Structure formats: C-alpha cells, structure tokens
Amino acid sequence: IFDPTWDPDPTSPPVSYGMLPFILGTIGVMLVAAVIATPLSVGLALFMGEVAPRWARSITQPSMEVFVGIPSVVYGWLGLTILVPFLRENFSWAGFTLGFSWLAGSLVLALMILPTITAISYDALLAVPADMKHASLALGTTRWQMIRHVLIPTASGGIATAVVLGMMRAGHALQQLIAD
Fold first, then answer.
1. Is the whole model's pTM more than 0.90, yes or no?
2. Do the Cβ atoms of 146 and 133 come closer than 8 Å?
3. How far is CA 133 from CA 118, 149, 154, 170, in A?
C-alpha cells in the first residue's frame, strides 16, 4: 500500500500496486480545495446572513440549495470539458501545461464543495441566538465587530462541521473518480 511505484503490467515482473501516490494526491487535492473554498463559502454565508438585503437573500439562498443538489459527476464533466482545456490553452510555460493537474482537480472540487459549505455555514450562523448579536450591538460594537467577535466564534463549531461535510463530499467524488 505504501509503495510509491504503480506498475500493474503482468508482462514485466515485478508487478507493483503501490497506492501511496493516489493517497497523497487525493489528500493534496482535497486540502487545496478546502483552502480555496472555505473562506469563500464562509464569506458568502456571512453575506447572505448578515449583510445582504432580503431580496438578495431570497435569490442566493435557493441558488445555493440547487447547487448543493448537483451530482458530483456533473462537476467532474464540466471540469473536464471546460476547465481543463481552458487551463491547457491559457496557462502553459516552456512545455509545462496545467491541463490535467492538481490545480484543475482542486478548482473543480472547490467549486463542488463551495455550495455545501456555504449552506451549512449559513444555517450555523442563523443558529446563533439573536440576543447575543443584539447584546453585542447594544454595547456599542459595529456590525463588523459583532460579526468578527461574536457571530463567527459562536458559529465556529457549525462552520467546522460544514467544512468537514464539504470535504466528505469531495472525498466521495474522488473515490468515485478513481473507481471509474
């Protein structure tokens, strides 16, 4: 399992089924996707919950719920048909191309987990008692100080859960991709 060599050709012994590159690649792509998607998702959830007017919230919240329901295969297909050719044509230096790369995989996974993390973070932010927010504002803090010092720390458990659930979706999608 921890052998770095993948050589399953039975005609040229010794045959080696090392899984280390696949394990490390999966972990690396998932971590980069989490680093990209988490701040964007939490920012979008904060926008939807605290900053956006009602009419904007009435558009963005159902949109996020729809994007959560899109199957992982669709995101993978869009990544292969749109993102990989775009990266291959526009980002190549001295024979080095970014078509099929960690960057492409990470961007597709970030796009896929962004709605999941956003929707769950939004629910976690809504679960913060209004009394805590009102008490903070009554003590003279600005709305941004209330968000930073009261809202985010109080909802941090739910936000962490959102990130874990988003990563579970990414891991499941990668597992399906490797199995296919």
1. no
2. yes
3. 21, 10, 10, 33
